[in-house]
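It is worth pausing here to work through a concrete case rather than discussing structure prediction in the abstract. The textbook approach is simple: state the sequence, then state the predicted structure, then interpret. We follow exactly that order.
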Amino acid sequence: MPFLTLSNLTKSFGEFTAVKDMTLSIEKGEFISLLGPSGCGKTTTLQMIAGLLEPSAGRILLDGKDITKTPPNKRGLGIVFQSYALFPHMTALENVAFGLEMRGVGKAERVERAHKALQQVKLDQFTHRFPKEMSGGQRQRVALARALVIEPPVLLLDEPLSNLDAKLREDMRIELRLLQQDIGVTTILVTHDQEEALSMSDRIVVMKDGDIAQIAAPLDLYERPANTFVSDFVGKTNLISGTTTGPDSVTVDEEDLRFPGHGQPTGQTVTLSIRPEKFQLSSDQTGHEVQVRAAIFLGSSWLYRVESSMGDLFVTQPNTGMPGFGRGDKARISWPEGAMTLFSEAA
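Step two, the predicted structure:
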């Protein structure tokens, strides 16, 4: 039986429906990310799970118990907000212990548990520092320790890394994922950052306009998107419009591409999707001719925009230590069979 179940969960604000009939089952110990653009309903969903918003319809079941009408303070869930919401006049230890004090835990026990929680997030040397004396990453760890110290059945994370700089955010993804795996707490993360969701999750729930667009493990989501929205939103992709010209072919601007057994009727407008890293860009004579319009060095890779008979395309190539192509260079692109995904809907 699933540990946490959202059953036909709906939230409306007047005539606007933010979350539409959402059904989702989450296993104990899973790390789930709710991913989508602003306004898709992911934060509203998290707030309903937390009890901060009452659903317009549907139910929330936690370990078999209906908590739909249970007040937030009775659900026992751990929550980390984007702003951290630490008390500025309290030390790290006092901030972490505060939730235990509100639950009536004795002083000796709450100090011991607060010390342990700070140790889990590698801040045991910062117990007596105030928030203003800590970096953004350290404050984020205090907020995480405060959520974990109550030993919640579910940890809710509302874009907790968005205020950190890029390098620290990358480091914290790893630390947070390792901590979650070590503790085994069921975790739901709200994010609009595709890399964050892909790097941390067991499964990702992609949302659009209050609906679920796709639920899948990160690799499956990236390699086998369900539609053009998921393909374009999760990572970078090239969307190419074409027309089916037979059971094994698609024509793009008079260029025939092999697409064995695509299953679409002849004359159907389709969209092809291919990730930039699936292309091979070379100076030999095989493949489709292109001209480089932009070349951007990213350190570990090169990002090119090339002009082709299929339109402008983005191409990513690993940095091998050799000079890359320059603007205006002629080149050829090719790709392995199966690298393109075909969607019956238009881009």
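Step three, interpretation. The chain has a mean pLDDT of 92. The chain has nine helices and 20 strands.
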